[in-house]
């Protein structure tokens, strides 16, 4: 997505040949107009999939997910990184998600009332890097017996293992911006065949 | 807001004469259509205030805040409950927020790049109870030297101290649903003069 790549180039900052900071428009301050355009692009890509539910994980997945949900006119569910006191152990789906950046493992939780075997779930997240959050959300979809129709991502770090892990499981992944490299603290894009 | 009150009555659950669980449509699963209508109502209320920025706090404030930001065509900023590793101490505004529910105090953080003295800030959050999160966000607006134009809330627990604390500071508060009591685990509304 050309507009997103322009924003990454003009407003993104790269550290340590690996970290892309996009907090001025994507995950701390959010450019609402850009977010709407990104949501429309993801909706267009998945529009024939009869999506019944959008699933993401708190916190920075929530903004793109609610915008996409609003376009599909379906509910959005966000997984929580800790179990709410009002949810009992047998009322939840849960999965372990390891963060390589923070070197911690979180248990993510979704109430089992909100995804069921009839659902066609579209997972939305801001970043795809090592894919651990997405794999955790996929486990939750599987526990619910629901179908996963695909994964929509704003920014993919294609040089990390996430996309490969999803593709080898046959998942339909749409990333709006694919980054081939952050070497020398410079952004190099991977403009793919499925460019949106 | 009639539609929201209906949802609270039909889908909300009350515990311990004090806790209102709305996780089926507001803060775990989110009814995207309801969220858009709530955002439109808040936009209509504050439409003459020349809002330049929407401010909220992760995680459950993000969905209403991005929807309101999209209607105003202004950026949204969400305060983080922990300091990102990419932000240095002299690059941030911060405030202490005590949660009576969880009995913990969090430091909330906003990068000082994203709010400045020219901003007219509208604070959006899902709940107003004791008002501690809102007061923390107000401290951040004050540190930035920005103007606060008002506070937009989805559900207010009017029997707790939040609204009083804001009103005695002269803040313009718009709550879409005001709850007078949860006694006997029953929802009683407070339908006020400023009903939207």
UniProtKB/TrEMBL annotation, chains A, B:
<comment type="pathway">
    <text>Purine metabolism; XMP biosynthesis via salvage pathway; XMP from xanthine: step 1/1.</text>
</comment>
<comment type="function">
    <text>Converts the preformed base xanthine, a product of nucleic acid breakdown, to xanthosine 5'-monophosphate (XMP), so it can be reused for RNA or DNA synthesis.</text>
</comment>
<comment type="similarity">
    <text>Belongs to the purine/pyrimidine phosphoribosyltransferase family. Xpt subfamily.</text>
</comment>
<dbReference type="InterPro" id="IPR010079">
    <property type="entry name" value="Xanthine_PRibTrfase"/>
</dbReference>
<dbReference type="GO" id="GO:0032265">
    <property type="term" value="P:XMP salvage"/>
</dbReference>
<keyword id="KW-0328">Glycosyltransferase</keyword>
<feature type="binding site">
    <location>
        <position position="157"/>
    </location>
    <ligand>
        <name>xanthine</name>
    </ligand>
</feature>
<feature type="binding site">
    <location>
        <position position="20"/>
    </location>
    <ligand>
        <name>xanthine</name>
    </ligand>
</feature>
<feature type="domain" description="Phosphoribosyltransferase">
    <location>
        <begin position="23"/>
        <end position="158"/>
    </location>
</feature>
<comment type="subunit">
    <text>Homodimer.</text>
</comment>
<keyword id="KW-0808">Transferase</keyword>
<dbReference type="Pfam" id="PF00156">
    <property type="entry name" value="Pribosyltran"/>
</dbReference>
<dbReference type="InterPro" id="IPR029057">
    <property type="entry name" value="PRTase-like"/>
</dbReference>
<dbReference type="InterPro" id="IPR000836">
    <property type="entry name" value="PRTase_dom"/>
</dbReference>
<dbReference type="GO" id="GO:0006166">
    <property type="term" value="P:purine ribonucleoside salvage"/>
</dbReference>
<dbReference type="GO" id="GO:0000310">
    <property type="term" value="F:xanthine phosphoribosyltransferase activity"/>
</dbReference>
<dbReference type="InterPro" id="IPR050118">
    <property type="entry name" value="Pur/Pyrimidine_PRTase"/>
</dbReference>
<feature type="binding site">
    <location>
        <begin position="129"/>
        <end position="133"/>
    </location>
    <ligand>
        <name>5-phospho-alpha-D-ribose 1-diphosphate</name>
    </ligand>
</feature>
<dbReference type="GO" id="GO:0005737">
    <property type="term" value="C:cytoplasm"/>
</dbReference>
<protein>
    <recommendedName>
        <fullName>Xanthine phosphoribosyltransferase</fullName>
        <ecNumber>2.4.2.22</ecNumber>
    </recommendedName>
</protein>
<keyword id="KW-0963">Cytoplasm</keyword>
<keyword id="KW-0660">Purine salvage</keyword>
<feature type="binding site">
    <location>
        <position position="27"/>
    </location>
    <ligand>
        <name>xanthine</name>
    </ligand>
</feature>
<dbReference type="GO" id="GO:0046110">
    <property type="term" value="P:xanthine metabolic process"/>
</dbReference>
